[in-house]
Amino acid sequence: MIGKLTGRLDYRAADHILIDVRGVGYIVYCSDRTMAALPGVGEAVALYTDMVVREDLMQLYGFTSLVEKEWHRLLCSVQGVGAKVSLAILGALGPDGVSRAIALGDWASVKAAKGVGPKTAQRIVLDLKDKAPGVMAMGGTVVDAMDGPVTDVLEPDEAAPAPERKPVARQPVGAAAASAGALSALSNLGYGPSEAAAAVAEAAAATPEAGEAELIRSALRLLAPKG
Q1: CATH assignment of the domain containing 203
Q2: 5 phi/psi in degrees, rounded to 5
Q3: Among 44, 65, 149, 203, which is most exposed with the fewest C-beta within 10 angstroms?
Q4: pLDDT tens for each residue of 163-174
């Protein structure tokens, strides 16, 4: 299976790109959000990928982070959700937004994605709610997809000078890492994965720029017995 591609962006269409990897072109389908984060044609690019192989189909889907890739895998495991719907959800919400929506049981946010009806949105939240804590805990592992030098993917006479090299745009890791750290802290305090994930998601939604310590304090206030 192909799990990651590093090469040069040869062309881009509405929903897919062609990555030239040492003379071999790979067509990779991406969400709108991922498409917007990619560099220009001719520049170096790297994406984590998920490969779907069926009797009549072989397609690659690309992601800028491992968290996005994992959500795609999980979304596609839900009955009635295919790759197109999964990319629509990730494009509309982003991986952090998907984590929050599912942890909070917010199927209305999932329904906002193109092609997702209320029954499908509710099924997604119901089926994946127990998976949210594990994916949110991956937040600290989100890395820049472009973790190798440009000369790894271009021929020596085509390599750009170092100052001109541009990394693939990426999702900021600070918020994801803070959520992962807060989730770990709450788990160590004895809170269940689902209730901890919901509290962290709600705190992060209320204060997107909060650091780990602030998220822990906010989540603890949400988890405290009422009245």
Answers
A1: 1.10.8
A2: -125, 135
A3: 149
A4: 344 443 344 456
